């Protein structure tokens, strides 16, 4: 331990820190690194190699002789410590020298790029982000080979010191959104940030809202599209999800596959998805409201079916609904926590066996079982995971309101929901844009996904300095018959 | 001196992130004018003018166009809202007193709207519902919306446009129309028709909101055409409603109806909805909430400007006042009295006070020029 230079003492408290003295003819070199972070191959071949072969090197010669591109000389000890903690090897020239050569020998172990599992699509590329930031940046950069594409790197978290990369295209992304985003990330005071989803929650405009205000995705193609539309994308080292902002409510109901399918098919699928959201939120509350208060409201044709199906059920509608909703949530939660194969079994056992048994035991009516199962399915049609969780939770206040005041309760709850959505913003952009404030020219890619000839302008609510995507005139070349 | 073009494009005095585009004035005014009082609108005028009530609707609509024009002359020339104009014209104390009257008017209006809605719910949906419970829930909702600011209120107005789907259900009444009810045309004297027009001022009221949100319009002068358009649309809607009332009911029948517009929902039949009245009655909330929100926003803003307090501290106090008042209004006769009071106040405000302000403005301008 005597040989450790005094400034490295602190680091050598840790058992994975290696420091040894390398005696040359002129002077003794100290070599320090973290065993757990460095690649032994680089260390032995590119650092120890030149050192052992030529014993009479001066400091500058030594620096030049190391055949690694990422190397530098520094005398700032904080900087040196930080670099060593990121896998650099430090070489101190002599016991008293204040200069160190830092050579990058970082060895990052991680998964290789795989197929997206959360946002799987049948069409389109099948690459998903992994935990390594450099791999992720590579996945994006190769889709945006554009000189104005910028990556700004920050470090956040007093313990995690996580590398966070903010990607945008200069001249396409609005400066105001970019600066807001950077400033919010810089202001994060948290110590350990392990994933970008944590960061997401910290920088969102209203962290008390159940609605997500940024979209997290694992698809590099989606990120490339968002960046080229003028949004700001944030990646964090160690996280397989990137997120981008500002976003509006509508974009949560878009899967990226919409852009890979022909526009008519994609539009119809999108409409089904929007309908499924409404169904998922309103179906069970309406069941409660109608059966509790407005029984006379339903037509005579329809009423006997419902009454007959729940004639043996001893509970009031709201209890029946809550039992079923909780059962479905339980199944989902259990399925999500278990390994895939057992999870599937649980799903089948729970879904089919419990469902039938519940009806036979007169715990619930057939009719409700269908509604609850459908609305659970409908909530999974929402492609962004956080939003589909929101949709699932959202129906509970509605159920209680319906129990309290029937249809009126649902109306009040809807208005409160709309008011909440109106108050939300994403990086300062209204959440309900382009519907409110109405931007007629931006309605093209919301409810339907039109043909690409209609995409000639970027969304005006993203306030891009360069709003034109391509010349509109070239898109609409219309010829006469037989010409 | 500014050029004409620059003056036309005059920007609002509020920070731009709180302002609305001029076209949204259409949505705002439409929602404010078309309040829940439409459900009882056609009764009294039809008693007065019979089958000629539709002429009164048009007359009243035209007179409101003139009032809108006058309002814009006053506002455009002063470039600010009525709260500041009052102080500018009549000094701090008299102006303040006038503002206080308007605060009272807006609060009373909010109380009336809320009590009316609760009454509708008690009659059509839940006879046992406690007034205070629903009032509390609605006022909490109102607080949440108003605390979001003016843009959120206009957003709620925009969302409430969904209610016009309910008006399409008037089609269902078509098979019961008696077209003979409409003739003979011009059977009533001009006096009767004008008296009926006076009855229509109450449903038409709502343009006065513009006096208080003028500074929140991004380019206020461009919004005039939208206000006029809103008035035209309202006239068309009211014509529709009054004509359907005429075609469906004889005046004698109508005199026994309290809310004839809700009665019309009984004609609606869908394959799986037996009683549309439930939806019709509950959907009245879309008529009520935006108006109450605006009333409270305007009155709390006036208090804020007069006494330099935070709007967020005033708002709960005003809401409590409204809550107490709503709980205290019991019985139909009180409601009728309040409605008469509001409609009288509205009538004199629209046809007396606003022209008066215009004259004061013109005189002031003349006086200043002569100096």
From TrEMBL, chain A:
What processes in GO biological process is this protein linked to?
A: spore germination
| Record InterPro entries | Spore_Ger, UPF0353/GerABKA_families
Which family does the entry's similarity section mention? Belongs to the GerABKA family.
Query: Where exactly are the transmembrane stretches of this chain?
Result: 271-293, 343-361, 367-386, 398-422
What name is this protein filed under? Spore germination protein
A Pfam family for this UniProt protein? GerA
User: Single GO cellular component annotation?
Assistant: membrane
Assigned keywords, A-Z:
Membrane, Transmembrane, Transmembrane helix
Q: Which PANTHER family match?
A: LEUCINE ZIPPER PROTEIN 4 (PTHR22550:SF5), SPORE GERMINATION PROTEIN (PTHR22550)
